[in-house]
Amino acid sequence: MKITEQIKQPIAQEMELFEKKFRDSMSSKVALLNRITYYIVNRKGKQMRPMFVFLTAKMISGGTVNERTYRGASVIELIHTATLVHDDVVDDSNRRRGFFSINALWKNKIAVLVGDFLLSKGLLLSIDNGDFDLLRIISVAVREMSEGELLQIEKARRLDITEDIYYEIIRQKTATLIAACCSLGACSVEPNGVHTEKMRKFGELIGMAFQIKDDLFDYTDDAIGKPTGIDIKEQKMTLPLIYALNNCARDEKKWLINSVKNHNKDKKRVKEVIAFVKQKGGLAYAEQRMAQFREEALLILADYPSSVYKDALVLMVNYVIERKI
Amino acid sequence: MKITEQIKQPIAQEMELFEKKFRDSMSSKVALLNRITYYIVNRKGKQMRPMFVFLTAKMISGGTVNERTYRGASVIELIHTATLVHDDVVDDSNRRRGFFSINALWKNKIAVLVGDFLLSKGLLLSIDNGDFDLLRIISVAVREMSEGELLQIEKARRLDITEDIYYEIIRQKTATLIAACCSLGACSVEPNGVHTEKMRKFGELIGMAFQIKDDLFDYTDDAIGKPTGIDIKEQKMTLPLIYALNNCARDEKKWLINSVKNHNKDKKRVKEVIAFVKQKGGLAYAEQRMAQFREEALLILADYPSSVYKDALVLMVNYVIERKI
Question: What's a Pfam family this protein contains (chains A, B) (predicted)?
Fold first, then answer.
């Protein structure tokens, strides 16, 4: 059995019902919108976010979820989908999960509006049902994600970026939404418990590991066996490169900065940069930091009694680190 | 004294304090964001929306507003600003209020993210203060606005568009936000009264008149003395044209449809269409419908005792109809 199927097993029923509810949550009076959202739900991703919601909820409650859990998962997925639709507009991407993106099929104007529509539908689902505690978790995530993306634009191309700023960027732009999933799952079943904050921290740590893994793909062999080097080409400073910059001789540093700044369109030079970062231990360091975030996350889980849900969360943590795509 | 200054007089103090609070509501840890929002607040528009909030609140309460009124006005203005920033991206506009637009100065990617940030800041301002009744009013408006824009994209270029669909489009895309301003103003001072719904209806009627006026500008002389005809060039069907289409002979209709469909880039033909719509009474009809919406709005105000705030709202209604830009 594939690891993702193994993870889904203890929440199989919930995930099935969730899909129906998620589909319903996007309905509109406007026919064009229904055509577009139909296209979206039929090209769904791995659904990692609702999985985190249901697994944490069931681990905390001992196996039961409620309507708040379903609504929370729907809101998160609506907002995540809205973000992806907007991302494709801003990055001018024509593809998403192997299919055409919304902006490619229906143009930018419609894509921006569809994103806004999905966002407001998500918020209304919480408001109409009085899920104000869940709504707060979600709105903080929305603000942090947009701030994180903007922080990245402001800082990530600066050659003097520090490791701390790198962590702040990935915490805001990626970890905050996974943190929201886990704390929302907990909050949906135990509104006033200590678990909401503990699970937020757990999700944040996983999210940090997840993004470091993502950034490592740029330097490691991809599915067809070659590192992509896209981040280097875009002068995006991620952990392996930041480490190498801070841990090399003066003349090497000069060469590295010059390579990233002035020769990042030169394929051969990009390859050399990748090799240099590897040789300086940038990849090993990033992997070590990723493993530390994983350990901290598992330490939080250790406080909870054994259950199939906890086991699945451990699998999920390992999947984040070991995934190939 | 200019009419807008006359309208602002009874809420001068509130508008001054509002500006400060609105400015504060946009603050962020990200320096780039603060630079952009500083640019935005220094190029403010007519501030019609907060004016509606404060005038309705003071008319209902007899002259006092509270912190909820200020927060509500800020949220509305944050969301309105977010919408404008996104609009300029989708319409690829370089200009806004005579200055460069955000996308022109900082590119599309940043503009979409700034819009998302402003939206989430608005929502958090309501959530953090427990203004859930106000939040509901606002979220419905956000959903209706995006649906209205999408409905317009779907239907407004169809040559068989009905008058009813036209009203539905302008109700959703324009009237709904002015309706939200007025009902929010009322709700901020009298949470459980009948005024919230009455003021929502009042705002909706004004919003309808406002958009018909906007659509009329395409056919009437603008500031430099010429009708723009932009809607015709974009094959956007608005009330004057819809009326003319439904009230002319068969061969005339054929000519009109052919003109809009196949010759809408031909300046001479566009001029002929404008003249034809005028001659068929399309403008007179649209003005008459606009006047009816105005009358209905004033009828709602008639239920309230005289006050300087009510007088200012009447001036506002007239300004909507009589404005030159």
Answer: polyprenyl_synt
A-B CB pairs within 8 A amount to: 124
Question: Quick one: pLDDT at residue B223?
Answer: 56
CATH architecture of the domain with range B3-191+301-322: Orthogonal Bundle (1.10)
The label of the residue with tokens 């995934």 reads A323
Which range, of A122-126, B218-222, B309-313, averages the lowest pLDDT?
A: B218-222
Where do the domains of chain A lie?
3-216+281-322
ipTM associated with this complex: 0.76
Beta-carbon separation of B146 and A29 below 8 A = no
Q: Interface of chain B against chain A, CB under 8 Å?
A: 28-33, 83, 86, 89-91, 108-110, 112-114, 116-117, 119-121, 123-124, 127-128, 130, 132, 135-136, 139-140, 142-143, 145-147, 149-151, 153-154
pLDDT at B308 over 90: yes
Partners of B115 in the beta sheet?
none
More confident residue, A20 or B94: A20
pLDDT in tens, B114-123: 888 898 888 8
Q: Which amino acid is at A75?
A: V
Per residue, the 3-state secondary structure of chain A, as one string, reads CCHHHHHHHHHHHHHHHHHHHHHHHCCCCCHHHHHHHHHHHCCCCCCHHHHHHHHHHHHHHCCCCCHHHHHHHHHHHHHHHHHHHHHHHHCCCCEECCEECHHHHHHHHHHHHHHHHHHHHHHHHHHHCCCHHHHHHHHHHHHHHHHHHHHHHHHCCCCCCCHHHHHHHHHHHHHHHHHHHHHHHHHHHCCCCCHHHHHHHHHHHHHHHHHHHHHHCCCCCCCCCCCCCHHHHCCCCCHHHHHHHHCCCHHHHHHHHHHHHHCCCCHHHHHHHHHHHHHCCHHHHHHHHHHHHHHHHHHHHCCCCCCHHHHHHHHHHHHHHHCCC
Query: Is 3.40.50.800 the CATH classification of the domain at A3-216+281-322?
Result: no
Q: What is the pLDDT of residues A125-143, one digit of tens each?
A: 988 898 989 988 988 888 8
- Chain B residues in contact with A143 (beta carbon < 8 A): 117, 120-121, 124
Interchain pair A119, B124: CB under 8 A: no
